[in-house]
Write a structure and sequence with these properties.
- The protein is an alpha+beta fold.
- It has a single domain, classed as 3-Layer(aba) Sandwich (Beta-lactamase), CATH 3.40.710.10.
- The protein is built from 9 helices and 9 strands.
- The strands form 3 sheets. Strands 2-1-9-8-7 form a 5-stranded antiparallel beta sheet, sandwiched between helices.
- A hairpin with a 5-residue loop joins strand 1 and strand 2.
- The chain is globular, with a radius of gyration of 19 Å.
- About 45% of the residues are buried.
Length: about 325
């Protein structure tokens, strides 16, 4: 049974509504309380009630495993499933174009085909970690993270790094060591973090996604679909900090000696080159080919395009976005 998150899937059977409503209110209140304690006010740089001179060390706790209430309105509006109209065929093995505001599917090609998704996996990694780590929480780099297979930015075992720096390393540079460091810091272990990633996919109604790596480097057994990635991205873009990170083109950060400074350059070449482009993640492995999840916003309309296994991911995404904006 297909997920109801994007149009074209069967809708879930209705369940008694009283218990979910009570639980949703409880979780929302708990999530709000946690957010007030950990996130800075809009425009601020420090978490509420936390001194700048004494950043907290990130520690795994049971409280940080309490997820926010899952938005149950993440359902794509009904509309025609368009599979033609782009002119020349896309080079991608699978693709989808979704209106981010209401979720209407504007174009789809083999949208439910399970494929390796490379570093677009990090969209879910970033989202889960952002919900559990405040920007200035200090992460002590686990030796396993420092040994992560390339691509890595070169984190050293035992060094202490502010979480916000790791998030930029994750989503701009696409560091696999950043992915594992954030996973361990926010859930206590790689295994526990993967469980959270897969639980979130199930909570969103996605049955064609499985994560076996927080970085996406491991292709075997790590898969998703264009449909599911569009749904995950719509969910992630509800997080303001996620939106800020993925639209950043260049981030310069100070670093402890002997590094002193780093410059993260976003690998998403649409930023600054395509009008309205504001995210989200590139990916490539030999098996997955070129993957790209892209977002662009014009006149208040956000479009999300996903291409997997493409020969020319940027050309495919441009054509999808052009097609979508020409019809809005």
């Amino acid at each position: 049974m297909r997920s109801p998150i994007l149009q074209g899937g069967a809708h879930r059977r209705r369940r008694p509504r009283l218990l979910p409503i009570v639980l949703a209110v409880f979780l929302a209140a708990a999530g709000a309380s946690l957010a007030l304690r950990t996130w800075p006010a809009k425009g601020g740089s420090e978490p509420s009630g936390r001194a700048a001179s004494a950043p907290a060390v990130a520690r795994w706790t049971a409280a940080k495993l309490l997820p926010p209430a899952i938005p149950r309105d993440l359902v794509v509006a009904r509309g025609p499933m368009v599979r033609t109209g782009l002119g020349e065929p896309l080079t991608a093995d699978a693709a989808i174009l979704v209106e981010g505001t209401n979720g209407t599917v504007l174009f789809a090609k083999r949208e439910h085909l399970r494929l390796p998704v490379a570093s677009t996996t990090k969209i879910m990694t970033a989202l889960i970690a952002l919900e559990r780590l405040a920007p200035r929480d200090v992460v002590t780099i686990d030796p396993a993270a420092a040994r992560a297979a390339p691509f890595r930015e070169g984190l050293r075992p035992g060094e202490r790094v502010a979480a916000w720096k790791l998030f930029h390393g994750l989503m701009l540079y696409s560091g696999n060591d950043d992915a594992l460091a954030l996973a361990i810091a926010s859930a206590g272990s790689r295994t526990a973090f993967l469980r959270l990633m897969n639980e979130r996919a199930r909570d969103l109604g996605l049955r064609d996604t499985k994560f076996v790596s927080p970085s996406g480097l491991v292709d075997r057994g790590n898969y998703s679909t264009a449909w599911d990635l569009a749904a995950i991205t719509r969910h992630a873009l509800q997080n303001a900090r996620f939106r800020t990170i993925v639209r950043t083109r260049v981030k310069r950060v100070a670093w402890a000696a002997p590094t002193y400074a780093k410059v993260y350059v976003n690998k998403n070449h649409l930023l600054g080159a395509y009008p309205g482009a504001d995210g989200v993640k590139t990916g490539w492995t030999t098996l997955a080919g070129h993957c790209l999840v892209a977002s662009a916003t014009r006149h208040g309309i956000r479009l999300i395009a996903v291409v997997l296994g493409a020969d020319d991911a940027y050309a495919d995404v441009r054509r999808l976005l052009d097609y979508g904006f020409s019809r809005r």
